[in-house]
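FW: tagging you since you asked about this chain on Friday. Here's the raw sequence from the shared folder, copied in full. Didn't touch anything.
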Amino acid sequence: MDGALWATTSVEPEAGQFTVWIEVVFPDGVVRKRISTYRTESLAEIAASLISRCANVDTYGG
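HL: got it, structure written out here
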């Protein structure tokens, strides 16, 4: 199995809170998973930034 090529995160409003999603691109497709929900958009953005940076360390060319 080949490793991930790239990972990105997004923040989406959901039921008055903000949900962080991660999308990981593989040579054979894309996987999208829900990470967590946060009470404020700023907390969700901080979490999304940290998750994205950590995920991309392990991809090709990190």
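FW: Strands lie at 6-14, 17-26, 29-38.
HL: agreed, and The longest strand covers residues 17-26.
FW: great, closing this out.
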